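Input for the complex:
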Amino acid sequence: MSESNSSTKQLEEARCWLSTAQRILVLTGAGLSTGSGIPDFRGPQGIWTRDPDAEKLSDIHYYVSDENIRRKAWLSRRDSPVWQACPGLGHEVLARFEQSGRLDTLVTQNIDGLHQLAGSSRERVIEIHGTIREVVCLVCSYRVPMQDVLKRLAAGEEDPKCPDCGGILKSATVSFGQSLIAQDLARAEQAARDCDLMLAVGSMLSVYPVAGLVPIAKESGARIVIVNGEPTAMDGIADAVLLGDLDEVLPGVLDGTHIND
Ligand code: NAD
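Predicted:
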């Protein structure tokens, strides 16, 4: 079979499985938001691909021990493209698909909040790597919207501290070296065990423990459909791998599948 025949067959199969699956788990990664102007980390145009030093800003050990890294991290939060970004076609298609009633859970590795802005319901979205839209204290339970702390930055502070306890402040994201929120991970793993189809989009599926949701779903009997612009670490256990730009492939896979309920 030619390559294009094989990809057409995989697309048709994936659409068919998505039409009939009753309990779908969607896993999204940074690739879903590149079309909204937020670069990924490891893709061909990714932030770390172009500047390997940028990885230090996402490492908790550098963050707590080096004031310069914290200053840079605050500037990068202030200048983040997230504040101007609007949900893209992929976010919208997924929010629409939820109306089919068969999307059980949406686990996102993204920290940009665009799924909720597109209309995905908060109860179904698990932000497994946290959110850039809030700030937490690394010592006490202080938690406020990011914009409150960015105002302090605009007023001249370079490394704002917790007003309650003087502790280090950080975006409410999970950096390398930090543990995921146990409750979120447990919920995501349960969703992987319970789903009959897992759709993974825009992720290289190389960051654990999130990537481990794919084998959990597979071993529990679910079909695995992967959509990404390049091969992923989990292609070997997938039932269908659809290569291409998400904004083009995702509507073709999902739109209309809820009509066949
Ligand atoms: P990744 O950077 O490892 O992989 C992204 C994948 O998406 C790559 O394979 C890339 O080729 C693909 N991709 C990019 N744009 C695409 C497009 N338009 N169509 C199809 N494929 C496309 O991302 P990851 O696996 O999600 O992990 C990186 C970590 O970085 C995540 O845990 C996340 O927390 C964080 N992150 C989040 C954001 C965000 O919130 N938008 C952005 C960058 C990084």
